[in-house]
Design brief:
Length: 382
């Protein structure tokens, strides 16, 4: 089955000052009272990806007097999965009922509002999921029903003429049309969220690799030590949240979390179909396993799989658009963990985001609300 996100034009990135370092800065404009001496905070969030900064922003919006720090090992916000992804704002069609479907559908709505409010580039370009055989039509109908059950708005089932009306180059027997699927640059979104955190009075410490965690029962605080990053030293927090993506298993185990689930990295590749020099369709396939890291994909092999859907396609129209490493959680049975996993070690003021699968970039603003709800009672006691 072919999945294509319809790109009608190139996104023009807006310069929001990505070269500006956020290191150790807290907003100077805020008038709110902070209870931090520079190293001691009410809340520390380890991980400055889109999930970490969205969570920081949500907590500060709900609790304006909170002192909060985001600790990020890289030199900028959102440098890992959050800026190496396909940039699709997913509508939530595919996912089985559960947190993933709920947070994606809610997050998709919130993301469009956020992009609009902050004047960030995006395009609500729509998506076609195409079936070319009778067997695929049965699968398509299942996906359509799932999308409707998940509350995805505006879904349509198209026949072959309907497909041509939307995308003349694509052939198929039937297709689901999802008008609310879109594209954006989640790296820019993460950086804007980081700016929001600062203007809400939060602190962002870049180049801070959280290496060790030490819980003090007497003071009910956690000391977070950085020995190997560019910045060394200790940060003390009354409540710890970890949102560390590819490292979420290792960081959680170091900070009183369970051994499972484990994270396995998967390389994921996305390509564009070029038309007159402009990306026309975003095409996607993915390969599994650490051993794939250094290998490239053959455009000729990819073309073969696409020919039933796009007979006129030529190999020189397929362009490599990028790749990223996906954090895939595996349970103790070796099975893929598909839904979100939030883990709160007993009797400790800690919450771990153990699995934040795709489409967590789309869902980030909804995930932030979920984490804020889960931590509300503990944060109220601070
Ligand atoms: C190839 C690919 C394509 C994807 N396509 C899409 C898509 O189209 N749409 C969509 O919605 N989602 C997509 N996703 C998923 C999405 O990008 C991720 O789910 C999302 O970015 C996760 O955000 P995060 O903040 O949890 O993780 P990350 O962005 O990985 O952030 C985690 C952060 O934690 C930091 N960190 C880790 N350990 C430490 C430590 N010890 N101390 C300090 N900092 C630490 C890291 O440096 C990193 O910045 C895709 C993912 C990949 C890989």
């Amino acid at each position: 089955m072919l999945v294509s996100n319809l790109r009608k034009s190139v996104i023009k990135p807006i310069n929001i000052g990505t070269t500006r370092r956020l290191y150790c800065s807290s907003s100077s404009t805020t008038t709110k009272q902070r209870r931090s001496d520079g190293n001691t905070f009410d809340v520390a969030i380890v991980g400055g990806g889109i999930v970490g900064v969205a969570t920081a922003r949500e907590l500060l919006m709900r609790n304006p007097n909170l002192s909060l720090v985001v600790l990020e090992q890289e030199s900028e916000i959102g440098m890992q999965q959050s800026s190496h992804n396909s940039g699709v704002i997913h509508s939530g069609i595919y996912y089985k009922p559960g947190a993933r479907a709920r947070l994606c559908t809610q997050g998709c709505r919130l993301m469009y509002e956020y992009l609009e409010r902050n004047k960030l580039p995006y395009e609500r370009c729509g998506k076609l999921i195409v079936a070319t055989t009778e067997e695929e039509i049965a699968k398509l109908e299942m996906i359509f029903k799932r999308g409707v059950d998940n509350g995805v708005e505006g879904l349509e089932m198209l026949d072959s003429e309907g497909i041509k009306r939307i995308e003349p180059h694509v052939s198929g027997l039937r297709a689901i049309y999802s008008p609310n699927t879109g594209i954006t640059d989640f790296g820019l979104v993460a950086k804007q969220l980081g700016k929001d955190v600062q203007s809400l009075g939060g602190t962002i410490k870049l180049n801070f690799k959280a290496d060790e965690f030490d819980y003090n029962q007497q003071s009910n605080t956690i000391t977070i030590k950085s020995g190997s990053g560019a910045i060394t030293g200790d940060v003390v927090a009354k409540f710890l949240i970890t949102c560390t993506g590819l490292y979420s298993d290792r960081v959680a185990v170091k900070s009183y979390g369970a051994e499972q689930p484990k994270i396995v990295p998967f390389r994921d590749i996305y390509e564009w179909l070029m038309e007159s020099g402009l990306p026309k369709l975003a095409l996607k396939h993915w390969r599994r396993g650490v051993d794939e890291f250094v290998r490239d994909v053959s455009p000729a092999a990819f073309l073969k799989t696409l020919t039933p859907y796009m007979p006129s396609l030529k190999v020189d129209q397929i362009e490599y658009a990028g790749s990223g490493v996906r954090a895939q959680a595996l349970g103790s049975d070796g099975e893929i963990v598909e839904d979100f996993v939030f883990d709160q070690p007993p009797n400790k003021p800690i919450l771990h985001v153990r699995n934040s699968p795709s489409p967590s970039a789309t869902a980030s603003l909804a995930i932030a609300k979920e984490i804020a709800n889960l931590s509300e009672s503990k944060i109220k006691q601070l």
